[in-house]
Amino acid sequence: MTLSEENYLKTIFHLEKEYKDGVPTNAIAHEMHTKASSVTDMIKRLAEKDLMVYKKYQGAKLSDSGRKHAIKIIRKHRLWECFLVDKLNFNWDEVHEVAEQLEHIKSEKLILELDKFLEYPKTDPHGDPIPDQDGHIAVIQKRVLAELQRGEEGICVGVNDSSSAFLQYLDKNNIALGKKIKIEDKEEFDNSLVIQVEGKKMTISGLAANNLYIKKI
Amino acid sequence: MTLSEENYLKTIFHLEKEYKDGVPTNAIAHEMHTKASSVTDMIKRLAEKDLMVYKKYQGAKLSDSGRKHAIKIIRKHRLWECFLVDKLNFNWDEVHEVAEQLEHIKSEKLILELDKFLEYPKTDPHGDPIPDQDGHIAVIQKRVLAELQRGEEGICVGVNDSSSAFLQYLDKNNIALGKKIKIEDKEEFDNSLVIQVEGKKMTISGLAANNLYIKKI
DNA sequence: ATTAAAATTTAGGCAAATCTAAAAATATAT
DNA sequence: ATATATTTTTAGATTTGCCTAAATTTTAAT
Q1: Which domain does A183 fall in, by range?
Q2: What is the CATH number of the domain that holds B40?
Q3: What ipTM score was computed for the predicted complex, to two decimals?
Q4: What is the DSSP string of B153-189?
């Protein structure tokens, strides 16, 4: 399996959540910063290797084998992110690019031992679940902050947007995984929220509130 | 810099020790399990990027810039080997293949932090020196075991052959870095040696004795 | 000093992964 | 329902890194 093939599998896996019955060629092209024609080429190649099910004009679907491969890559990606943050002093907004490289390293023993070394973490630094060896992915109980009503509170458990811009914005505002957040007020006009984090009040935009995952308490 | 280019630089760097005035095309081809014509192609490409100095039929020579790059890759390779052995329970005969992959990961911070995390190791699990950030490589005081005379003794400080066959042979015979070895007898007929390691006598072949580095005490 | 052998380079091709431009199929809008 | 717009696919090129086979250069041998 080539690096490029692995990246396609991973991307399609993520997009399947949004596009249940076939991921459009264009969606893949956009996500991978490439052209639709290149995507068609690759989909065909992956289909020939039985990693995908391909019917012309019907969008991309992973085969069971393709999905298994995709999950392995995601497992590696997230374990490496843990390593970078827990052991090498990376901040959560710095890990993505490096993990994108590390996820392609091929060695069963490496991942087994890395998992053990990190003491079998359940989630990565962004709160996303780490698939287990058998490819099982735990479902994390969560809802977007924007859904909560005035007076409700919860613990921050993840982000929907892992861009460093958003993560740095959270850092700047003292919001991190594990922090308790209470809704003080909701502004209907622009969906912004007044929240309280560790006793400090602040306002966050509707967009930000839609990218923060909370577990209600 | 592509993966393939990096592998050429690294290989040529290592071969330059043996071929001081130009590494023959064939030597590179042999080492990289490829064909001489492919090597010529690549040498030209590297020369165009000023990573090598190329004159037809004169063999390959690294430029200063090429040598700097090669050393960076070797630094990364050896640091990752330390990581695998010290932190992930790899044996010294299992690390090479994985380190060959890891050495191509691109991130300054990653290597800086890995070095710190490992507490700035001086040598890798085979006793080879780890180049520092500026590309300086310490010279390790050593000689091959085969050179020692009857009655002399030394500490094992490295291996010339890192094949897993040889390393496993050493494991099996209780020879490892740091062990004290004393020459009990030399057999002129086949250059084999009778040595003593931790009080136990054993015979090793001339070939093995030529691949073990010793520091005299 | 020729000639034979070995090493190196050139020429021409191939596969992976991408691109642009054009063609074909599907979706949308009136 | 038909025309228009959008999406997807095909066709044909390009680049990287490799190959084989043939030509060229260097080295070694007599």
Answers
A1: 143-216
A2: 1.10.10.10
A3: 0.93
A4: EEEEEEES---HHHHHHHHHTT--TT-EEEEEEE-TT
Last residue of a domain, one of B62, B83, B100: B62
**Tens of pLDDT, residues A54-85:** 999 999 999 999 999 999 999 999 999 999 99
pLDDT at A43: 97
Domain count, chain B: 2
Burial class of A62 by CB neighbour count within 10 A (0 to 12, 13 to 18, 19+): buried
Chain A residue with minimal CA distance to B108? A98
From B97, which residue of chain A is nearest by alpha-carbon distance?
A107
Whether residue B2 lies within 8 A of chain A, CB to CB, comes out as no
B3 touches strand C (CB under 7 A): no
Q: Does B3 contact strand D, using a CB cutoff of 7 Å? A: yes
In this predicted model, what pLDDT tens digit does every residue of B189-205 receive, in sequence order? 999 999 999 999 999 99
3-state secondary structure A2-60: CHHHHHHHHHHHHHHCCCCCCECHHHHHHHCCCCHHHHHHHHHHHHHCCCEEECCCCCE
Bridge partners for A216 per DSSP = A154
Q: Which residues contact A182 (CB under 8 A, 6 or more apart)?
A: A151, A152, A153, A195, A196
CA of residue A79 to C1' of nucleotide D20, angstroms: 44
A1 contact B CB<8A: no
**CB-CB neighbors (< 8 A) of B107 in chain A:** 97-98, 101
